[in-house]
Amino acid sequence: MTVEYKVAVIGCTGRGDYGHDLDIAWFDIPNAAVVAVADEDRDGLAAAVERLNLTSGYSDYRKMLDVEKPDIVTICSRWVDRHHEMACEAIRRGIHIYMEKPFCRTPAEADEIIALCERHNVKCIVSHPTRFSPLITTIRDLIDQGAIGRVLEFRGRGKEDMRDGRDRSGAEDLWVLGTHVLDMVQALGGAPIWCFANVLTDGRPATDADAREGAEGTGQIIGNTINAMFGMPDQAVAHFSSRQGAGVGHEPSRYGLQIFGSRGIIELIEGTIPSVKYLGDPSWSPGRSGAEWQDVSSAGIGIPEPLVSPKYKARHWLAIDELLSAIEEDRDPAGSPKEARIVTDMIFAVFESHRRRAPVDLPLRPDDRTQDQQVYAQESSR
């Protein structure tokens, strides 16, 4: 018999809203039904009730969780400042979670969420959709088969774009878009073991005087240019950069990840069935070698994509399928808080390395897991 899951939705109109449509994503899932929505904003709640085909909603999400007793809650807001609070409230009630990225504000918050999930046997997935793409498995297989030789480096960039009249490059880009790129690095290369980075404001080392309130609930942030290097387990390195004023202002942008090997390059863009390209060229220079970029599908290099059903075009369907499978099989899902915590550590390691002006080991030490970025900003000028 098919199990139907009761799903509750938490939105935050004006403070991250409903993320990248995490609320209506459940319409695609045949064995799940949205039964309730909560939003502290009256107008936002009314719109969500209508959008989700409900008759009423809640202004208090805790009351919703207590009254409705859902199997799963979707924490939709893009803003990260209340993710930890909302996740902990759900976990203590034994409710499974699908939540928008970024995961949470500090490694210490991540530690608490993971400990609570283990204590209450709650399954949780953080929405990094590329991780669930069949193309990730294909890329891993190509790497294992030697298609690009020995992996030498991963190279990722943020969007480096403008939003609401501001340049999002640097710390905001790292938090908001870099979380996807860093998760791709981890999914394909494993957990990094060190980080060495510098953070700049207007071309000079960022200091406490540059601290500002970040957008999307990130708290105090510093830096509009970031250059970070991560050491990978197999001696490859991964780079993430985001520079003020570097956005090209049109598509295609540089946002994504390139994997450079001794025999070629694989490039992928964020998404469920992302654009993936392969260049079989040890010189990495098709202008000199005459090599041509080839499309990669889930079936391999140069083969048309066979996966054309709606679930492969939807942003969240594959991730939600993984969450439901993990619940039914009582196992950790892919994209779990343990993996999302690695990304949070990577983000914080950037600022910790800048503060120390030296490489830092990953995972971060216990003393470094509770700091906020204001502390990094204050201490970076000493």
Q: Could you characterize what this model shows?
A:
The structure is a single chain. The mean pLDDT is 94. The strands form four sheets. Strands 6, 9, 10, 13, 14, 15, 16, 17, 18, 19 and 20 form an eleven-stranded mixed β-sheet that branches. A five-stranded parallel β-sheet has the order 2-1-3-4-5, sandwiched between helices. It contains eleven helices and 20 strands. It is of the alpha+beta class. The chain has two domains: 5-129, Rossmann fold; 131-312, Dihydrodipicolinate Reductase, domain 2. The longest helix has 20 residues, at 337-356. It has helices at 42-51, 61-68, 83-92, 107-120, 134-144, 171-176, 178-189, 286-289, 317-329, 337-356, 373-379; strands at 5-10, 32-38, 72-75, 96-99, 124-126, 151-157, 162-163, 166-167, 194-201, 204-205, 212-213, 220-221, 225-231, 237-242, 256-261, 264-268, 276-279, 294-297, 300-301, 360-361.
Please write out the topology.
Elements: E1 5-10, E2 32-38, H1 42-51, H2 61-68, E3 72-75, H3 83-92, E4 96-99, H4 107-120, E5 124-126, H5 134-144, E6 151-157, E7 162-163, E8 166-167, H6 171-176, H7 178-189, E9 194-201, E10 204-205, E11 212-213, E12 220-221, E13 225-231, E14 237-242, E15 256-261, E16 264-268, E17 276-279, H8 286-289, E18 294-297, E19 300-301, H9 317-329, H10 337-356, E20 360-361, H11 373-379
Helix pairs in contact: 3-4, 4-10, 7-10, 10-11
Q: Any key phrases for this structure?
A:
382 residues; alpha+beta; Dihydrodipicolinate Reductase, domain 2; 5-stranded parallel beta sheet; 20 strands
